[in-house]
## 1
Amino acid sequence: MSLNFLPKRTAQGKISATALLISLCLSTQPAQAALTFNFTYLSPGQGFDDPTFGAARKLALNSAADLLGEYFVNYTATLDYDVTSSSVNESRLASAGSSYSVIPGTFQRTTVQTKILTNGATDSNYFAADGHIDWNFYENWGLSDSVAANEFDFKTVAIHELLHSFGFSSVVNQNGGGLEDKNTGTPDTWATFDKFLTNADGVSLINNAGVFAGSNVNALTSGSGSVLFNGQNAKDANGGVAVNLYAPTIFSPGSSISHLDDDTLALSELIMASSVSAGQKSRELSAIELGILRDIGYTQIVAPAEVPVPAAAWLMLSGLLGLVSFGRRKTAL
Ligand SMILES: [Zn+2]
């Protein structure tokens, strides 16, 4: 998981000739990213538009979007985001989302998700932005690939937020209502993600008719292991069992159910956990996260290592991986 950062520092300078060769070879590959992100910054003079720090923040957001785009090379879409910013002393680092169509008794993709999965053919909200992001710049942010221990990893958090807009998100509220906040037992509108929710006994929280059973409401606030994601791809990546979602005993609107469970050790450091500590984090999606994305419709998603490259480039990549391992062992000494 730390392959991204530790080796770079130790290997620097010692392998410069080889590294240069590798980077030249890689840079001659055609651009792979097939998703295009257009960010419109709506908080003049502050945050991303700050006269001193704004340019670097925008660069970091674009860089994170490109990293995420590497998983989506088999899709082609231009995604428009409205981006706002704030500076508030609170626990929220950032938030993001994308709208849904409301049709009772159905599971809906987000506008961003629809656009990606139709390769740009369907823009559910026409001229309005497809998604939105709000960033809290109160905290110290590490914008580069070397994040200090007292900084939050901007790129990791940006990937996390973008994935919410891609549909890695629940709309279940604490009463068991959906987008329309209907009473349990009544068809409501849900996110595609919600189709895969079960309780600890493996019973779906919401049936195929879009009805949340009242008997499942308690599960939403029953802690680790009480609400799970049971999509087949996610299970395949998780040893055959459904994946624990974040379901704290006090419901946290916008956070409960929409994240992996931080209290499950194997999930706590993954990008889609509900919280993140300061310091350098992984920007790589885990097999479990990729499985969930496949389950919610992104069947063509690829881990970057799976992207086909010419044989010569494979050799170079192998060489690079070898150096990375070497650097890592050195660091561990
Ligand atoms: Zn989140």
## 2
Amino acid sequence: MRMRRYLAAECLVLTLFVAGVGFAARGLVRIALAERARPAPRALAGAFATPAERDPGHLPNPATAQDSAGTFLGMEDDFLISRLRSQPIVRMKLNHGGSSLSFRVDFADGSRAAFKPAQTNLQTMPRKEVAAYRLNRLLGLSAVAPATPRMVSREDIFSHLHSDTAPLLPRIRAETIFDPRGNSAGVMMYWIPVIRESGLDTPDGIAQSTQWLTPGQAIPGNKHALAAQVSDMMVFDFLSANPDRYSGGNMMTNEDGSRLYFMDNTLSFFIEPEGNEKTRTALHRVQRFSRRLYEALGRVSETGLAQVLAQASEGEYEILTKPEIRAVVSRRDYVRRYIDGLVASHGAPEVLYFP
Ligand SMILES: Nc1ncnc2c1ncn2[C@@H]1O[C@H](COP(=O)(O)OP(=O)(O)O)[C@@H](O)[C@H]1O
Ligand SMILES: [Mg+2]
């Protein structure tokens, strides 16, 4: 019964969000693409050439190539996760700019984390950030910061608040949810030290990246790796049913703009088998994909997902329900059908364009 009510609540949240209420709350309206793609000369042809041969500017996708062995920014996931789970908290500062309760945490060893507690705002469900990180790994990606469940006590939160955050105490009290033991079932994430706005969520950014991901269109040499990452992100957002990517601030890069981070994945994993309109529309703007990601879709089975999600929690809370897992697999089937259809029309070299 509780589960049914919970799922009904989630459907309601999504409906409101897609109707635009979520955007209004965030105070950000980003207008979708006006098709401005200018036809460009065909990329160096040759149906049998490898992508690298077709275009010497082709670079490996840094989100997969550098970190495929379970490391994030050069650090082992296991190391980062165990630190996120166990380091004592010494300070918590509320992050500005978002609609959710989201903190920057300083740990005793000097490292940092982002923390989202369980909260009244149903657009922020901490367990879904954990699911997003695990799905990203299952797909061989390294674009979501390592994230783990963590129960944080009322005392840990209120005794470590940064002085700047003190005026927001009433809001934190009103919106944080604690269990009967006084713990909030939140998510602790690796704090990415440097992030920059990508600009890819602006009308110009959307127009440009859509062009990169259209068969026959040229990609500037220094944008190949970024184009591949945008394509990966659209597949990822469709699989995770995340309509929040283009709402502002959730598509960040590293300092030089070469590496894309998929930020803020807590409004996701809804149970629509064919995704929602936003993510479906975004997916359909993409016609070039990474071959590696396409192959990795085979790992997104109910058992595969259940296994990686079981590893994520040490009993704090369930990461995804069975219906949520089943819906990811249905969306996986949808993405495959979509890509297979494109391959039939344009040929594999054009569609499975990135390594
Ligand atoms: N893992 C992280 N690393 C670095 N900064 C982060 C991280 N998570 C959140 N932030 C910062 O906090 C802001 C708000 O977080 P976000 O997850 O987007 O939540 P929301 O938009 O729902 O408030 C981000 O725009 C970013 O500046
Ligand atoms: Mg955000």
